[in-house]
Protein backbone atom coordinates (compact mmCIF):
# COMPACT_ATOMS: atom_id res chain seq x y z
CA UNK A 1 0.00 0.00 0.00
CA UNK A 2 2.82 2.37 0.93
CA UNK A 3 4.38 1.75 -2.48
CA UNK A 4 1.13 2.38 -4.23
CA UNK A 5 0.73 5.68 -2.40
CA UNK A 6 4.19 6.67 -3.51
CA UNK A 7 3.13 6.12 -7.11
CA UNK A 8 0.14 8.42 -6.74
CA UNK A 9 1.96 11.74 -7.35
CA UNK A 10 3.53 10.29 -10.48
CA UNK A 11 0.24 9.22 -11.92
CA UNK A 12 -1.12 12.68 -11.10
CA UNK A 13 1.79 14.26 -12.96
CA UNK A 14 1.07 12.04 -15.93
CA UNK A 15 -2.58 12.99 -15.77
CA UNK A 16 -1.99 16.73 -15.40
CA UNK A 17 0.72 16.85 -18.06
CA UNK A 18 -2.07 17.12 -20.60
CA UNK A 19 -3.58 20.16 -18.88
CA UNK A 20 -2.40 23.75 -18.97
CA UNK A 21 -1.29 23.92 -22.57
CA UNK A 22 -4.28 24.79 -24.67
CA UNK A 23 -4.89 23.03 -27.95
CA UNK A 24 -2.37 20.29 -27.34
CA UNK A 25 -4.49 17.52 -25.89
CA UNK A 26 -6.08 14.66 -27.79
CA UNK A 27 -8.51 14.48 -24.85
CA UNK A 28 -9.84 17.92 -25.77
CA UNK A 29 -10.66 17.55 -29.48
CA UNK A 30 -11.13 20.72 -31.56
CA UNK A 31 -12.16 19.14 -34.82
CA UNK A 32 -14.26 16.28 -36.22
CA UNK A 33 -11.30 13.96 -36.89
CA UNK A 34 -9.90 14.22 -33.37
CA UNK A 35 -13.43 13.79 -32.03
CA UNK A 36 -13.98 10.61 -34.01
CA UNK A 37 -10.65 9.22 -32.83
CA UNK A 38 -11.35 10.08 -29.19
CA UNK A 39 -14.77 8.42 -29.38
CA UNK A 40 -13.18 5.20 -30.62
CA UNK A 41 -10.65 5.24 -27.79
CA UNK A 42 -13.37 5.88 -25.25
CA UNK A 43 -15.50 3.05 -26.60
CA UNK A 44 -12.55 0.64 -26.37
CA UNK A 45 -11.84 1.86 -22.86
CA UNK A 46 -15.43 1.25 -21.72
CA UNK A 47 -15.42 -2.25 -23.19
CA UNK A 48 -12.12 -3.02 -21.49
CA UNK A 49 -13.29 -1.64 -18.15
CA UNK A 50 -16.43 -3.77 -18.42
CA UNK A 51 -14.33 -6.90 -19.05
CA UNK A 52 -11.98 -6.12 -16.15
CA UNK A 53 -14.84 -5.50 -13.72
CA UNK A 54 -16.67 -8.70 -14.68
CA UNK A 55 -13.57 -10.91 -14.64
CA UNK A 56 -12.27 -9.56 -11.35
CA UNK A 57 -15.68 -9.78 -9.68
CA UNK A 58 -16.04 -13.45 -10.61
CA UNK A 59 -12.44 -14.10 -9.67
CA UNK A 60 -12.83 -12.51 -6.22
CA UNK A 61 -16.12 -14.27 -5.64
CA UNK A 62 -14.68 -17.67 -6.49
CA UNK A 63 -11.55 -17.03 -4.45
CA UNK A 64 -13.58 -16.32 -1.33
CA UNK A 65 -16.39 -18.80 -1.79
CA UNK A 66 -14.25 -21.81 -2.65
CA UNK A 67 -11.21 -21.11 -0.47
CA UNK A 68 -9.76 -23.89 1.66
CA UNK A 69 -11.30 -23.80 5.09
CA UNK A 70 -9.40 -24.99 8.22
CA UNK A 71 -9.91 -28.68 8.85
CA UNK A 72 -11.58 -29.27 5.50
CA UNK A 73 -9.57 -31.99 3.74
CA UNK A 74 -12.09 -33.32 1.24
CA UNK A 75 -11.21 -33.15 -2.43
CA UNK A 76 -13.76 -31.14 -4.46
CA UNK A 77 -15.69 -32.74 -7.28
CA UNK A 78 -13.40 -32.98 -10.34
CA UNK A 79 -14.91 -31.61 -13.55
CA UNK A 80 -13.69 -30.96 -17.04
CA UNK A 81 -15.62 -29.19 -19.72
CA UNK A 82 -18.87 -27.31 -19.33
CA UNK A 83 -20.83 -26.59 -22.52
CA UNK A 84 -22.86 -23.75 -21.09
CA UNK A 85 -19.82 -21.95 -19.71
CA UNK A 86 -17.80 -22.42 -22.87
CA UNK A 87 -20.66 -21.13 -24.94
CA UNK A 88 -20.95 -18.04 -22.76
CA UNK A 89 -17.27 -17.20 -22.77
CA UNK A 90 -17.01 -17.60 -26.49
CA UNK A 91 -20.10 -15.58 -27.30
CA UNK A 92 -19.47 -12.59 -25.06
CA UNK A 93 -16.00 -11.80 -26.50
CA UNK A 94 -17.36 -12.17 -30.03
CA UNK A 95 -20.08 -9.66 -29.23
CA UNK A 96 -17.59 -7.29 -27.62
CA UNK A 97 -15.27 -7.52 -30.60
CA UNK A 98 -18.17 -6.77 -32.92
CA UNK A 99 -19.05 -3.72 -30.84
CA UNK A 100 -15.45 -2.56 -31.29
CA UNK A 101 -15.07 -3.58 -34.92
CA UNK A 102 -18.11 -1.95 -36.49
CA UNK A 103 -17.41 1.70 -35.54
CA UNK A 104 -13.66 1.17 -35.95
CA UNK A 105 -14.01 -0.04 -39.52
CA UNK A 106 -16.59 2.60 -40.40
CA UNK A 107 -14.42 5.44 -39.07
CA UNK A 108 -11.30 4.01 -40.70
CA UNK A 109 -13.00 4.22 -44.07
CA UNK A 110 -14.34 7.71 -43.37
CA UNK A 111 -10.89 8.94 -42.39
CA UNK A 112 -9.19 7.23 -45.33
CA UNK A 113 -11.50 8.99 -47.78
CA UNK A 114 -9.62 12.18 -48.56
CA UNK A 115 -11.55 15.10 -50.08
CA UNK A 116 -9.91 14.69 -53.48
CA UNK A 117 -11.04 11.05 -53.52
CA UNK A 118 -14.62 12.18 -52.85
CA UNK A 119 -14.20 14.72 -55.64
CA UNK A 120 -13.15 12.15 -58.24
CA UNK A 121 -15.80 9.69 -57.12
CA UNK A 122 -18.54 12.25 -57.49
CA UNK A 123 -17.29 13.06 -60.98
CA UNK A 124 -17.72 9.43 -62.01
CA UNK A 125 -21.01 7.69 -62.59
CA UNK A 126 -20.97 5.75 -59.32
CA UNK A 127 -21.01 8.71 -57.01
CA UNK A 128 -22.81 6.62 -54.36
CA UNK A 129 -24.42 9.84 -53.18
CA UNK A 130 -20.96 11.17 -52.23
CA UNK A 131 -21.01 14.87 -51.90
CA UNK A 132 -18.62 16.11 -54.54
CA UNK A 133 -15.90 18.20 -52.99
CA UNK A 134 -14.39 20.99 -55.03
CA UNK A 135 -10.75 21.87 -54.56
CA UNK A 136 -10.39 25.44 -53.32
CA UNK A 137 -14.05 25.78 -52.38
CA UNK A 138 -14.56 22.81 -50.08
CA UNK A 139 -11.02 21.78 -49.40
CA UNK A 140 -7.40 22.74 -49.88
CA UNK A 141 -4.40 20.48 -50.35
CA UNK A 142 -1.18 20.82 -48.39
CA UNK A 143 1.92 18.76 -48.95
CA UNK A 144 3.67 18.37 -45.60
CA UNK A 145 7.27 17.31 -46.08
CA UNK A 146 9.20 16.36 -42.95
CA UNK A 147 12.90 17.19 -42.73
CA UNK A 148 15.40 16.65 -39.94
CA UNK A 149 14.12 18.64 -37.93
CA UNK A 150 11.58 20.98 -39.47
CA UNK A 151 8.37 21.00 -41.49
CA UNK A 152 7.83 22.29 -45.00
CA UNK A 153 4.25 23.03 -46.05
CA UNK A 154 3.62 23.40 -49.75
CA UNK A 155 0.24 24.31 -51.22
CA UNK A 156 0.67 22.95 -54.74
CA UNK A 157 -2.46 24.58 -56.16
CA UNK A 158 -1.85 27.94 -54.51
CA UNK A 159 1.81 28.18 -55.49
CA UNK A 160 2.93 28.55 -51.87
CA UNK A 161 5.84 27.17 -49.90
CA UNK A 162 5.74 27.82 -46.15
CA UNK A 163 7.93 26.74 -43.27
CA UNK A 164 7.09 25.66 -39.72
CA UNK A 165 3.60 27.19 -39.37
CA UNK A 166 0.74 25.44 -41.17
CA UNK A 167 -1.95 28.00 -42.05
CA UNK A 168 -5.39 26.54 -42.71
CA UNK A 169 -8.88 28.01 -43.23
CA UNK A 170 -11.64 27.17 -40.72
CA UNK A 171 -14.24 26.90 -43.48
CA UNK A 172 -12.58 24.23 -45.59
CA UNK A 173 -11.36 20.69 -45.14
CA UNK A 174 -7.59 20.25 -45.37
CA UNK A 175 -6.15 17.37 -47.31
CA UNK A 176 -2.63 16.62 -46.13
CA UNK A 177 -0.18 14.75 -48.31
CA UNK A 178 2.67 13.44 -46.19
CA UNK A 179 6.22 12.99 -47.41
CA UNK A 180 9.70 12.86 -45.90
CA UNK A 181 13.04 13.96 -47.31
CA UNK A 182 15.39 11.95 -45.13
CA UNK A 183 14.17 9.54 -42.44
CA UNK A 184 10.76 8.48 -41.12
CA UNK A 185 8.85 11.19 -39.26
CA UNK A 186 5.24 11.33 -38.13
CA UNK A 187 2.65 14.09 -38.33
CA UNK A 188 0.37 14.68 -35.34
CA UNK A 189 -1.78 17.58 -34.27
CA UNK A 190 -3.29 16.13 -31.07
CA UNK A 191 -6.24 18.51 -30.83
CA UNK A 192 -7.16 18.12 -34.52
CA UNK A 193 -6.24 14.53 -35.34
CA UNK A 194 -3.62 12.27 -36.81
CA UNK A 195 -1.23 10.72 -36.56
CA UNK A 196 0.26 9.43 -39.74
CA UNK A 197 3.84 8.67 -40.75
CA UNK A 198 5.97 10.62 -43.21
CA UNK A 199 7.99 7.94 -44.96
CA UNK A 200 10.69 8.65 -47.58
CA UNK A 201 9.55 7.40 -50.98
CA UNK A 202 5.97 6.77 -49.87
CA UNK A 203 3.07 9.21 -50.04
CA UNK A 204 0.50 9.01 -47.25
CA UNK A 205 -2.71 11.00 -47.21
CA UNK A 206 -5.03 12.20 -44.49
CA UNK A 207 -7.46 15.03 -43.82
CA UNK A 208 -8.27 17.38 -40.98
CA UNK A 209 -10.78 20.08 -40.16
CA UNK A 210 -10.43 22.92 -37.67
CA UNK A 211 -13.82 24.63 -37.39
CA UNK A 212 -12.58 26.96 -34.63
CA UNK A 213 -9.93 29.62 -35.15
CA UNK A 214 -6.86 29.05 -33.05
CA UNK A 215 -3.29 27.91 -32.82
CA UNK A 216 -2.86 24.19 -32.45
CA UNK A 217 0.31 22.41 -31.41
CA UNK A 218 1.83 19.92 -33.82
CA UNK A 219 4.44 17.28 -33.11
CA UNK A 220 6.74 14.91 -34.89
CA UNK A 221 5.97 11.60 -33.21
CA UNK A 222 8.53 9.29 -34.77
CA UNK A 223 12.04 9.27 -33.30
CA UNK A 224 13.96 10.85 -36.19
CA UNK A 225 17.31 11.87 -34.69
CA UNK A 226 19.00 13.88 -31.98
CA UNK A 227 16.56 16.80 -32.11
CA UNK A 228 13.38 14.85 -32.74
CA UNK A 229 11.89 16.25 -29.52
CA UNK A 230 12.29 19.82 -30.83
CA UNK A 231 10.58 19.10 -34.15
CA UNK A 232 7.37 20.89 -33.21
CA UNK A 233 5.19 23.02 -35.45
CA UNK A 234 2.04 25.08 -35.17
CA UNK A 235 -1.22 24.89 -37.03
CA UNK A 236 -2.73 28.35 -37.41
CA UNK A 237 -6.44 28.12 -38.21
CA UNK A 238 -7.85 31.40 -39.51
CA UNK A 239 -11.21 32.30 -41.02
CA UNK A 240 -11.64 31.74 -44.74
CA UNK A 241 -11.20 35.39 -45.78
CA UNK A 242 -8.02 35.81 -43.76
CA UNK A 243 -6.70 32.61 -45.24
CA UNK A 244 -7.33 33.85 -48.78
CA UNK A 245 -5.46 37.07 -48.03
CA UNK A 246 -2.62 35.06 -46.49
CA UNK A 247 -2.49 32.74 -49.48
CA UNK A 248 -2.50 35.55 -52.05
CA UNK A 249 0.26 37.43 -50.22
CA UNK A 250 2.35 34.33 -49.69
CA UNK A 251 2.20 33.57 -53.41
CA UNK A 252 2.99 37.16 -54.32
CA UNK A 253 4.46 39.09 -51.40
CA UNK A 254 4.66 42.87 -51.40
CA UNK A 255 7.88 43.92 -53.16
CA UNK A 256 8.58 46.63 -50.56
CA UNK A 257 8.49 44.03 -47.79
CA UNK A 258 10.71 41.60 -49.69
CA UNK A 259 13.30 44.30 -50.33
CA UNK A 260 13.14 45.57 -46.75
CA UNK A 261 12.10 49.07 -47.91
CA UNK A 262 8.76 48.88 -46.11
CA UNK A 263 10.53 48.47 -42.77
CA UNK A 264 13.22 51.14 -43.16
CA UNK A 265 16.91 51.54 -43.77
CA UNK A 266 18.17 48.91 -41.36
CA UNK A 267 15.97 46.29 -42.97
CA UNK A 268 17.26 47.21 -46.45
CA UNK A 269 20.76 46.65 -45.14
CA UNK A 270 19.56 43.42 -43.56
CA UNK A 271 18.24 42.27 -46.91
CA UNK A 272 21.78 42.57 -48.30
CA UNK A 273 23.18 40.46 -45.48
CA UNK A 274 20.38 37.97 -46.12
CA UNK A 275 21.13 37.83 -49.83
CA UNK A 276 24.80 37.13 -49.31
CA UNK A 277 24.46 34.58 -46.49
CA UNK A 278 21.05 33.03 -46.21
CA UNK A 279 19.28 33.02 -49.58
CA UNK A 280 21.13 29.87 -50.65
CA UNK A 281 18.90 28.01 -48.19
CA UNK A 282 15.99 30.30 -47.24
CA UNK A 283 13.56 31.86 -49.72
CA UNK A 284 11.47 35.01 -49.50
CA UNK A 285 8.77 35.04 -52.15
CA UNK A 286 10.07 33.25 -55.20
CA UNK A 287 13.70 34.21 -54.58
CA UNK A 288 15.88 31.74 -52.73
CA UNK A 289 16.20 28.05 -52.14
CA UNK A 290 13.89 25.61 -50.37
CA UNK A 291 16.80 23.87 -48.60
CA UNK A 292 15.69 25.45 -45.31
CA UNK A 293 12.35 26.84 -44.08
CA UNK A 294 10.72 29.48 -46.30
CA UNK A 295 10.91 32.98 -44.80
CA UNK A 296 8.14 34.83 -46.71
CA UNK A 297 6.13 35.24 -43.48
CA UNK A 298 8.96 34.80 -41.00
CA UNK A 299 7.90 37.85 -38.95
CA UNK A 300 4.65 36.05 -38.14
CA UNK A 301 6.25 32.85 -36.79
CA UNK A 302 4.68 31.49 -33.64
CA UNK A 303 8.00 29.92 -32.70
CA UNK A 304 11.43 29.86 -34.31
CA UNK A 305 12.99 26.55 -35.31
CA UNK A 306 9.97 24.83 -33.81
CA UNK A 307 10.65 25.69 -30.18
CA UNK A 308 12.20 29.16 -29.56
CA UNK A 309 10.28 32.32 -28.71
CA UNK A 310 10.80 34.64 -31.71
CA UNK A 311 12.77 37.28 -29.76
CA UNK A 312 15.73 39.18 -31.26
CA UNK A 313 17.99 37.61 -28.64
CA UNK A 314 16.94 34.07 -29.48
CA UNK A 315 17.37 34.76 -33.19
CA UNK A 316 20.84 36.12 -32.55
CA UNK A 317 21.80 33.01 -30.53
CA UNK A 318 20.29 30.73 -33.15
CA UNK A 319 22.14 32.26 -36.12
CA UNK A 320 25.45 32.35 -34.21
CA UNK A 321 25.23 28.75 -33.03
CA UNK A 322 22.23 26.67 -34.08
CA UNK A 323 23.90 23.39 -33.07
CA UNK A 324 24.08 24.21 -29.37
CA UNK A 325 20.34 24.91 -29.35
CA UNK A 326 19.17 22.09 -31.62
CA UNK A 327 21.82 19.37 -32.00
CA UNK A 328 22.39 17.83 -35.44
CA UNK A 329 20.16 20.25 -37.35
CA UNK A 330 21.20 21.28 -40.88
CA UNK A 331 21.67 25.00 -40.36
CA UNK A 332 25.31 26.26 -40.36
CA UNK A 333 26.63 28.65 -37.71
CA UNK A 334 27.59 32.25 -38.64
CA UNK A 335 30.54 33.67 -36.72
CA UNK A 336 31.33 37.36 -36.20
CA UNK A 337 33.85 37.11 -39.04
CA UNK A 338 31.05 36.22 -41.43
CA UNK A 339 28.35 38.53 -40.04
CA UNK A 340 29.33 41.40 -37.73
CA UNK A 341 27.12 42.31 -34.77
CA UNK A 342 25.82 45.37 -36.63
CA UNK A 343 25.00 43.33 -39.69
CA UNK A 344 23.32 40.79 -37.44
CA UNK A 345 21.03 43.47 -35.97
CA UNK A 346 20.08 44.64 -39.46
CA UNK A 347 19.52 41.06 -40.58
CA UNK A 348 17.21 40.37 -37.63
CA UNK A 349 15.39 43.65 -38.34
CA UNK A 350 14.81 42.46 -41.86
CA UNK A 351 13.59 38.92 -41.22
CA UNK A 352 11.30 39.86 -38.32
CA UNK A 353 9.52 42.38 -40.58
CA UNK A 354 8.67 39.77 -43.22
CA UNK A 355 4.90 39.63 -42.85
CA UNK A 356 2.02 38.87 -45.17
CA UNK A 357 -1.01 39.53 -42.94
CA UNK A 358 -2.19 42.98 -41.90
CA UNK A 359 -1.68 43.65 -38.21
CA UNK A 360 -4.82 44.24 -36.19
C1 LIG B 1 23.05 25.55 -45.64
C2 LIG B 1 21.71 26.00 -45.57
C3 LIG B 1 21.38 27.17 -44.66
C4 LIG B 1 21.91 28.42 -44.65
C5 LIG B 1 23.02 28.99 -45.52
C6 LIG B 1 21.17 29.16 -43.67
N1 LIG B 1 20.23 28.37 -43.07
FE1 LIG B 1 18.92 28.90 -41.64
N2 LIG B 1 18.20 27.03 -41.61
C7 LIG B 1 18.59 26.00 -42.40
C8 LIG B 1 17.87 24.81 -42.04
C9 LIG B 1 17.99 23.45 -42.69
C10 LIG B 1 17.00 25.17 -41.00
C11 LIG B 1 16.04 24.27 -40.23
C12 LIG B 1 16.70 23.85 -38.96
C13 LIG B 1 15.79 23.11 -38.02
O1 LIG B 1 14.87 23.72 -37.48
O2 LIG B 1 16.01 21.91 -37.84
C14 LIG B 1 17.23 26.57 -40.77
C15 LIG B 1 16.53 27.30 -39.82
C16 LIG B 1 16.66 28.66 -39.62
C17 LIG B 1 15.88 29.45 -38.69
C18 LIG B 1 14.68 28.95 -37.91
C19 LIG B 1 13.64 28.73 -38.97
C20 LIG B 1 12.20 28.93 -38.68
O3 LIG B 1 11.50 29.12 -39.69
O4 LIG B 1 11.73 28.89 -37.56
C21 LIG B 1 16.33 30.71 -38.78
C22 LIG B 1 15.82 31.92 -38.02
C23 LIG B 1 17.39 30.72 -39.73
N3 LIG B 1 17.58 29.47 -40.23
C24 LIG B 1 18.09 31.86 -40.10
C25 LIG B 1 19.10 31.86 -41.04
C26 LIG B 1 19.81 33.05 -41.41
C27 LIG B 1 19.52 34.44 -40.88
C28 LIG B 1 20.73 32.66 -42.32
C29 LIG B 1 21.76 33.55 -42.99
C30 LIG B 1 22.63 34.27 -42.09
C31 LIG B 1 20.60 31.25 -42.52
N4 LIG B 1 19.60 30.81 -41.74
C32 LIG B 1 21.38 30.50 -43.38
C33 LIG B 1 19.54 26.04 -43.38
C34 LIG B 1 20.32 27.15 -43.66
CU1 LIG C 1 10.81 14.10 -37.11
UniProtKB/TrEMBL annotation:
Binds a copper A center. It is a multi-pass membrane protein. It catalyses: 4 Fe(II)-[cytochrome c] + O2 + 8 H(+)(in) = 4 Fe(III)-[cytochrome c] + 2 H2O + 4 H(+)(out). Residues 137-249 form the Cytochrome oxidase subunit II copper A binding domain. Residues 265-355 form the Cytochrome c domain. It is found in: Cell membrane; Membrane. GO terms for cellular component: plasma membrane. GO terms for biological process: ATP synthesis coupled electron transport. Keywords: Copper, Electron transport, Heme, Iron, Membrane, Metal-binding, Respiratory chain, Translocase, Transmembrane, Transmembrane helix, Transport. SUPFAM superfamilies: Cupredoxins, Cytochrome c, Cytochrome c oxidase subunit II-like, transmembrane region. It comes from the Bacteria. The chain crosses the membrane at residues 43-66, 87-106. The keyword Metal-binding applies. InterPro entries: CcO_II, CcO_II-like_C, Copper_CuA, Cupredoxin, CuRO_CcO_Caa3_II, Cyt_c-like_dom, Cyt_c-like_dom_sf, Cyt_c_oxidase_su2. Its EC number is 7.1.1.9. Its main location: membrane. Residues 18-115 form the Cytochrome oxidase subunit II transmembrane region profile domain. One of its GO terms (molecular function) is heme binding. Its cofactor is Cu cation. Belongs to the cytochrome c oxidase subunit 2 family. Subunits I and II form the functional core of the enzyme complex. Electrons originating in cytochrome c are transferred via heme a and Cu(A) to the binuclear center formed by heme a3 and Cu(B). This is Cytochrome c oxidase subunit 2. It comes from Alkalicoccus urumqiensis (Bacillus urumqiensis). The gene is coxB.
